Amino acid sequence: LLSFPELFEKKNYELRIAGGAVRDLLSGMTPQDIDFATTATPEEMKELFTSAGVRLINNKGEKHGTITARLHEQNFEITTLRIDVVTDGRHAEVEFTTDWEKDAERRDLTVNSMFLGLDGMLYDFFNGYEDLKNKRIRFVGKASERIQEDYLRILRYFRFYGRIAEKTDDHEPSTLQAIKENAKGLAGISGERIWVELKKILLGNHVNHLVRLMYELDIAQYIGLPLDGNLEEFDRVTKNIQNLCPKPMTVLTSLFKVKDDVTNLDLRLKISKEEKNLGLFLLKHRQELTKAMGPEPLRPYQDFIMDSREANMISKIFELLKYQGEEQLLKEMQEWTVPSFPVSGHDLRKMGVNSGKEIGAALQQLRDEWKKSGYHMDKEELLSCLKKL
């Protein structure tokens, strides 16, 4: 079977690697997935692949010009060069073209607008490679035009800034101006799309600076963030969690002051139930649930887990420790296995405790003793303790 680039070559269609994969390859990273661009239309590609016996995966991309081929256990997305004809700030109607520069022109950022020939030739119409080397994030052409084609690009700008830029505050003033003037457009973008971008921003570099910018440029209110976010707490927590791989919600919760902040975020962004619960948990316990003085600093956290008896409580406690910046305790906590209570009702029946009520009461007493011992007492010790009781 021919490799699919050869299929294109045989028919004289041009095929190049496009967008993010080129950016990653030039930064010396392995791209997560490789997207291709071609001068062949979707119809021509379908014919090409079908006659070569290549399986096509039916996806919704065809009207935008994207065909997905399955080859050697891998999916390849190949998109026809296109021009956006009408854009409404959310999605575009497209027409196909064979002009590579026209296709590059409708992409969002210069670092995402390059093509790489399979022979290693770089096609770079907007100085993307220069910007990548200088770690600069710029829109292709006029920022306001790019943003008005799809307002989500405001957040994509932030996301790539957090991924690529070296300096904290290295924006073109005109770009920030364009973002501020168009912030309102984010109100029309679906919560799900916003949450995907926001989560990546929260885990990237410069998060403190970027979230402050969201407030300065009037974006926060349109993406579900509280109007009076707690930026001091956010400062503190973003320092705490620098190397601790927090969940996005853990970082975000530091902006919140009250429960309604979580509810409002959920209404706007449709976050998952797990994310919502984590936010509420951190909000409720970030101040009170702290390490103990003395030889067993972890005890309050361990007791909390044992008392809650909730299966995934331990992962919430991990996030709380990250939030509090307790790196050492986090390590110890990750090595701790939740002990299981060694005595059952069955053991008590064997000892002649028979009524359900008594069994319940006895188990509770033993559980308290077990807790006092730091969960170290085994079955024998506990049962001999019962005899004393």
From TrEMBL:
Belongs to the tRNA nucleotidyltransferase/poly(A) polymerase family. Keywords: Magnesium, Metal-binding, Nucleotide-binding, Nucleotidyltransferase, RNA-binding, Transferase, tRNA processing. The keyword tRNA processing applies. Its cofactor is Mg(2+). One of its GO terms (molecular function) is tRNA binding. One of its GO terms (cellular component) is mitochondrion. Transmembrane segments: none annotated. It comes from Crotophaga sulcirostris. One of its GO terms (biological process) is tRNA 3'-terminal CCA addition. Pfam families: PolyA_pol, PolyA_pol_RNAbd. This is TRNT1 nucleotidyltransferase. Residues 15-138 form the Poly A polymerase head domain. SUPFAM superfamilies: Nucleotidyltransferase, Poly A polymerase C-terminal region-like. The keyword tRNA processing applies. It comes from the Eukaryota. InterPro entries: Bact_CCA-adding_enz_type3_sf (IPR050264), NT_sf (IPR043519), PolA_pol_head_dom (IPR002646), PolyA_RNA-bd (IPR032828). Gene3D superfamilies: Beta Polymerase, domain 2, cca-adding enzyme, domain 2. Residues 172-223 form the tRNA nucleotidyltransferase/poly(A) polymerase RNA and SrmB- binding domain.
